[in-house]
Structures are given as C-alpha cells and as structure tokens.
Automatic annotation (TrEMBL):
Superkingdom, taxonomy of origin: Bacteria
Signal sequence segment: 1-25
Origin species: Pontibacter indicus
Pfam families tied to this protein: DUF4397
Keywords: Signal
Full protein name: DUF4397 domain-containing protein
Domain DUF4397, residue spans: 38-169
C-alpha cells in the first residue's frame, strides 16, 4: 500500500511540473499557502474590459478553467468574482498586485493596472479591477467581517461604479409582512447601508432580518423617501439563510439609465 501511495504522489508531482512548463505560461501558485496567509476576493468590475487575471508579483492568484478544445490561459470576464462565495488564501506580505490581460493565443501579457498592497496574515480583503476601458484601476479594501454568528445576517454596500457625478446613499428596504394566525403584521423597514459613498467607498456591515428586500441606491444630497421613491438603481431578492455575510455592489461605468447587471451581490461567508 505504501509503494502505491508513493508512486501516486510522484505521478501527481510530475503533472504539476509539466503544467508549470507550458509555453508562454505566466508563473502560477501551485504550492499550498502556509498557515498565516491572507484571504482575498477578486472582482472584475469594468464593462468592456478584456478577460483578465490578478497576480501578486509574478504569480497568478485567480483562475478560469480552460475550454475543452484548448489549453489557452483564460481570464475572468466583467461581472465575475474569484472565488465565488469564498476567499482565496494567498501569502501575506507586501506585493505588486496587478490585473493582467493574457491576450489569449498570442503569448503576450498586458498589464491593465497595478498597485502596491500589504496583505496581513489572517485578514480578509476584497480586490477590484475597476474604472473604464480607457482608465483601469486596481484597488483593495479590508473586509472587517462581523463575528461568526449563525443567528444573524449581515450586509454592506460597495460603490465601484466609475465616473459617477455624485456620491450615493444606499438602503436595504424590507417589504411589509402580512399578518398570519400566529404572527402580527410587520410594516416596511428601512436599513441604511451607507450615505455619501463615493467611488471606491463602502458602508459598514449592517444586521438584517430574514425577509424580502429591495436594495436601493440614490444620489446623495437629493430628496427622496427610501421606502417609496424611485431610486437610481435597485435590486430585489429574498434574504433567508442565517449566518451569512454579503455585499451589494454597483459596478461598470456611470450612465443616466443604468443596466440591471450593474448591481449585484456576493457572499463573503
């Protein structure tokens, strides 16, 4: 049994070495990260951008599975996140974080944007490729996650919509609940997720009750009623699972009439 195990291990190691030697490949993280690494989620928020991947110095830390017809290095498209509903564990330390278009099939790589980052051990971060196809930007924020509690739901708001002529106010509006034989009716409830949030800014995590919500974003400084007024952009869905932590984001570039795809949410935990 031990001999079989050793042969299997050598075969796996050889496979990793061959994969790392692919022509024109950019070095990737293939070894496991040691204890004391940092946790990062990577977002691709530029509509019209080429597919790209994030790198820490020269090592690729995001990934897309290759197609069945080629082994071309693929990148992440607009609106995607890596990894979905989780964090990637990466080494802690100071790095040059870059978003790179690998120009599939040409054997070249174009750096869209980069920035210097310091990743502290055991902390959580969200990293973004934001801006426009003529002005890319990479930035990172620390995710100060609330304590794990499987009796609560937490939500925050993040503004990554480029070229907005105004800051925004964000709300989670819980729909009224009709009375039942065992429970009284519940009125509409409004939760403030942040006010005056400019590009690259976010609000705190706010505790929400289970229910059906509409997430509304208004231009800051204007008159409105969060419960009844039409917002600049909004999204509705049900919040049911306890113990979760989420972020709603607006992305892409500003337009007077935004697209529905420019608001979405992702789960941190």
């Amino acid at each position: 049994m031990m001999k079989i195990f050793k042969r299997a291990f050598l075969f796996l190691a050889a496979g990793l070495m061959l994969g790392a030697c692919e022509k024109n490949a950019i070095p990737e993280v293939t070894e496991p990260v040691q204890e004391g690494g940092a946790y990062v989620k990577f977002f691709f928020q530029v509509e019209g951008a080429p597919r790209a991947n994030f790198y820490l110095d020269s090592k690729k830390v995001t990934a897309v599975a290759p197609t069945t017809t080629s082994n071309i290095v693929l990148g992440n498209a607009y609106g995607s996140v890596y990894p979905s509903n989780a964090y990637a564990m990466v080494p802690s330390g100071t790095f040059n974080m870059s978003a790179i278009d690998t120009v599939a099939g040409k054997g070249t790589a174009d750096v869209l944007a980069s920035t210097s980052v310091n990743l502290a051990a055991n902390k959580h971060y969200s990293a973004y490729l934001a801006g426009t196809p003529t002005s890319y930007e990479v930035f990172m924020v620390e995710d100060n996650l609330p304590p794990a509690d499987y009796t609560k739901i937490w939500w925050r708001f993040m503004n990554t919509m480029a070229d907005m002529p105004f800051a925004v106010d964000a709300y989670a509006v819980r729909s009224a609940v009709a009375a039942t034989e065992t429970k009284p009716a519940e009125p509409v409830q409004v939760y403030e997720l942040g006010k005056g949030l400019a590009f690259k800014q976010h609000g705190p995590y706010v505790e929400l009750k289970p229910g059906t919500y509409t997430y509304k974003v208004f231009p800051a400084g204007t008159e409105y009623d969060p419960a009844t007024s039409k917002s600049y952009i909004q999204q509705s869905f049900s919040v049911t699972t306890l113990g979760r932590v989420y972020t709603t984001q607006i992305r892409g570039a500003y337009a007077e009439t935004p697209k529905a795809a420019q608001i979405d949410y992702w789960r941190e935990r």
